[in-house]
Design a protein that fits this description.
The strands form three sheets. Strands 4, 14, 15, 16, 17, 18, 19, 20 and 21 form a nine-stranded mixed beta sheet that branches. Helix 2 packs parallel to helix 9 (262-279). With 434 residues, this protein is α/β, with parallel strands linked by helices. The protein has two domains: 8-37 and 297-427, Lyase, Ornithine Decarboxylase, Chain A, domain 1; 108-291, TIM Barrel. It has helices spanning 22-29, 38-55, 71-79, 89-97, 114-122, 133-146, 185-194, 216-236, 262-279, 293-296, 330-334, 423-427, and strands spanning 8-9, 15-17, 20-21, 33-37, 59-64, 83-86, 105-107, 127-130, 150-157, 179-180, 199-205, 242-244, 286-289, 300-312, 316-321, 340-342, 352-357, 366-373, 381-385, 405-410, 413-418. It starts with 7 loop residues before the first strand and ends in a 7-residue tail after the last helix. The structure holds pyridoxal-5'-phosphate and lysine (LYS). Homodimer. It catalyses: meso-2,6-diaminopimelate + H(+) = L-lysine + CO2. Residues 40-296 form the Orn/DAP/Arg decarboxylase 2 N-terminal domain. Pfam families: Orn_Arg_deC_N (PF02784), Orn_DAP_Arg_deC (PF00278). Specifically catalyzes the decarboxylation of meso-diaminopimelate (meso-DAP) to L-lysine.
């Protein structure tokens, strides 16, 4: 059995996390419950920061808050000295409400609205990552109206196809994101932003995809970008102060996944960029990255209560839990795989293979297919590992199922950081017909 961070088995033979018995968590906070191992998030954050410090380059590690955005999480990112990537007014609002320093917030998105851009300017956030020509014009208009200046990065697509699921690929030419580096769009965008004096054009951004296990894609992207920068230095005297290579660092969900440590990505990227910079006689830019999943993914687990079961003779046995695609849509959306144990007997011998079904009215609402487990009883607690990224943040109210609570655990203490939704919450914006 593979345990992440502080997860282990306590004297009572129960699964524990952050020094807290998972059965106590389930009893005190109810199920389904998202539980986060805070010290593992701290460890992941300092891993990235240390890797940059060792390379002796100016850097920012911006937590991609789309992976898991709540006030407490943003405050934890602040405590760890991270910057923050937001992609919507809602994520920006959360960051500001959490007291996150505005100058360390970077705003992404392929269709930022006027209101969102105004909110960003009014709060003087660190930079806006411009995605398309529409946004250049809109942002120019708003800057003129407000007599505001703003730092910008241009998001470019370098034409890289990283090896990951199609829906989480972003760096290839046929993508909804960014300016294409090869077909002249990026150069045209650069000319447009350089010509507007209220923009301080810090540099370029690219993000090649998510759940990537190798450095090759990042190095290739860096090469394509630096080559372009060399061309632009000669042609239009543009020099980038910042090169943001995005996130996408893979994590271990199951034994099939073999992630490499953050330090390895960072050192490979820096080595390559330094080499290229030297080769083309450019100034070394600050290197920014935006890890989401790799900061919070394996620090989160979800606790469910087991309810009904169904045998399909000679085919499979279904075990149903009290959550499902409403709290974790990733298996349905990306065929994502997870591992799980019974929290009340994590070390018991596996005696059967079961498939874990959710409770939504959807045949595709399956959390795990073919999971080896000891014989489970009604009310046993199932702990699904590695649900910390894109679990809570993609949760929904399908079938009017309330979103679960979120608890942070550290050094034997459990803190409720998001309350469980209530039925009243579900209808609070509904208006009666009469
Ligand atoms: C622009 C950008 N930055 C960062 C991330 C974070 O990715 P991940 O959670 O895979 O690190 C994403 C999501 O894929 C993204 O689109
Ligand atoms: N939400 C996705 C990743 C896409 C991230 C945003 N570009 C996941 O769960 O894996």
């Amino acid at each position: 059995m593979y345990f992440y961070g502080t997860t282990g088995v306590n004297k009572q033979g129960h699964l524990e996390i952050g020094g807290v018995d998972s059965l106590e968590l389930a009893k005190n906070f109810g199920t389904p419950l998202y539980v986060y191992d805070v010290s593992l998030i701290r460890e992941r954050a300092s891993g990235f920061k240390k890797a940059f410090a060792e390379q002796n380059v100016k850097a920012q590690v911006a937590y991609a808050s789309k992976a898991f955005s709540t006030v407490a999480m943003v405050q934890l990112a602040e405590e760890e000295g991270l910057s923050l990537d937001v992609v919507s007014g809602g994520e920006l609002y959360t960051a500001l409400a959490a007291g996150f320093p505005a100058e360390r917030i970077h705003f992404h998105g392929n269709n930022k609205s006027r209101e969102e851009l105004e909110m960003a300017l009014d709060n003087q956030i660190g930079c806006i990552v411009i995605d398309n020509f529409y946004e250049i014009e809109l942002l120019k208009t708003i800057c003129l109206e407000k007599s505001a200046k703003v730092n910008v990065l241009l998001r470019v697509t370098p034409g890289i196809e990283a090896h990951t699921h199609d829906y989480i690929l972003t760096g290839q030419e046929d993508s909804k994101f960014g300016f294409d580096l090869q077909n002249g769009q990026a150069e045209k965008a650069l000319a447009a932003v350089m010509a507007f004096e209220s923009f301080d054009v810090l540099g370029l951004h690219c993000h090649i995809g998510s759940q990537i296990f190798e450095t090759t894609g990042f190095l290739l992207a860096a090469r394509k970008i630096v080559e372009k920068l060399a061309e632009w230095k000669a042609k239009v005297a543009f020099e980038a102060k910042v090169l943001n290579l995005g996130g996408g660092f893979g994590i271990r969900y199951t034994k099939e996944d073999e992630p490499i440590p953050p330090s390895q990505y960072v050192s490979a990227i820096i080595k390559e960029v330094k080499l290229l910079i030297e080769q083309y006689s450019l100034e070394m830019p600050e290197i920014w990255i935006e890890p989401g999943r790799s900061l919070v993914g394996d620090a989160g687990m979800t606790l469910y209560k087991i309810g009904s079961s169904k045998d399909v003779p000679n085919v499979r046995k279904y075990l149903a839990v009290d959550g499902g695609m409403s709290d974790n849509i990733r298996p349905a959306l990306y065929q994502a795989k997870y591992e799980a144990v019974l929290a009340n007997k994590p070390l018991a011998q596996n005696t059967e293979t079961v498939s874990i079904a959710g409770k939504c009215c959807e045949s595709g609402d399956m959390l795990i297919w073919d999971l080896p487990l000891p014989r489970a009883e009604e009310d046993d607690i199932l702990a699904v590992f590695c649900t910390g990224a894109y679990g809570y943040s993609m949760a929904n109210n399908y079938n009017r199922i309330p979103r679960p609570a979120v608890v942070f655990v550290e050094n034997g203490n459990a803190t409720l950081v998001v309350k469980r939704e209530t039925y009243e919450d579900l209808i609070k914006h509904d208006l009666p017909l009469k």
